[in-house]
Design goal:
104 residues; Gyrase A, domain 2; 52% helix; 15% strand
């Protein structure tokens, strides 16, 4: 016979949180503004389309000029990492576009 012990921590592990921390490397105020622009765009998309219930919002991530810290449930870690990768890609595109406009 197999049985779960009353002290099983399986549910606790599933609901455990992780802290994602990413270092930002920016060259100037324009690159930080591009990051802010990309973040606002992604937040507007989430607010418009909605997010999967229980999925962390980028709105909860804490941004500084040097890093991003985001506490998320462990089961959403990879999805949140993907969101941050998308954020960086969008910010770099926005920065490249604004740099091209300044040179014109």
């Amino acid at each position: 016979m197999i049985a779960f012990s009353a002290g099983s921590s399986a549910a606790l592990l599933e609901s455990a949180g992780v802290t994602l921390r990413f270092r930002l490397t920016s060259t100037d105020d324009s690159s930080l503004e591009a990051l802010r622009y990309a973040r606002r765009a992604m937040l507007r998309e989430d607010w418009t389309r909605g997010v999967v219930e229980g999925e962390p919002s980028l709105e909860d991530a804490v941004f500084s000029a040097f890093d991003v810290v985001w506490e998320v449930p462990a089961q959403h870690r990879e999805r949140c990492r993907s969101k941050l990768e998308e954020l960086v890609a969008r910010a770099n595109r926005a920065f490249a576009d604004s740099s091209a406009l300044r040179r014109s």
